[in-house]
């Protein structure tokens, strides 16, 4: 049985390491018969949540009318949500944070999106695995709050320049995770 997977990337570098990991994941997941929808947050028009509390009033997830209104229906329909992002200053890239902040629309708007699975793909320049804490904890707490099950994390340190990921097993691990989704 195939699954509907949403991949949300956070890197603004189309030739970057996170993009390559996401591509490896998507390819393997699709080869396994899954349907993947991808959103590249860095290239979406998504502003920060204004905490206005008018989520889903007027039929839209967000009253601001930005691209989150395209992302939200895909997330509602998905079985699995995968977050792929580099670590930026020990945390999430700004556009990824904007997308995640707008997940509040599901709670305020009364949309039960529990029961999904999720995963994290990430890389960073530094060597210590603790550098992923800001990203990992954010995604793990998001999953817990929403009632989602974490099914995997691929966190690869010591990559900075585009192509550095090819010197690691990051793309292979991302592909393995994609292939494991059934």
Describe this protein's structure:
With 182 residues, this protein is α/β, with parallel strands linked by helices. It has helices at residues 17-31, 68-77, 94-101, 104-108, 133-146, 170-180; strands spanning 4-9, 35-40, 80-86, 117-123, 149-156. 35% of the residues lie in helices and 19% in strands. Helix 1 (17-31) links the parallel strand 1 and strand 2 (35-40). It is globular and about 50 Å long.
Which key phrases capture this entry?
19% strand; alpha/beta; 182 residues; globular; five-stranded parallel beta sheet; 35% helix
Topology, please?
Layout: E1 4-9, H1 17-31, E2 35-40, H2 68-77, E3 80-86, H3 94-101, H4 104-108, E4 117-123, H5 133-146, E5 149-156, H6 170-180
Parallel strand pairs: 1-2, 1-3, 3-4, 4-5
Mean pLDDT: 96
**Estimated share of beta-strand residues:** 15-25%
End-to-end span in angstroms? 6 Å
> N-to-C SSE series?
EHEHEHHEHEH
| Strand arrangement, major sheet | 2-1-3-4-5
Count of helices? Answer: 6
What are the segments in which pLDDT stays under 50 over at least 5 consecutive residues?
none
Q: Can you summarize the main beta sheet?
A: 5 strands, parallel
* Radius of gyration, taken over Cα atoms and rounded to an integer in Å: 16 Å
The geometry reads as globular
Strand elements, count: 5
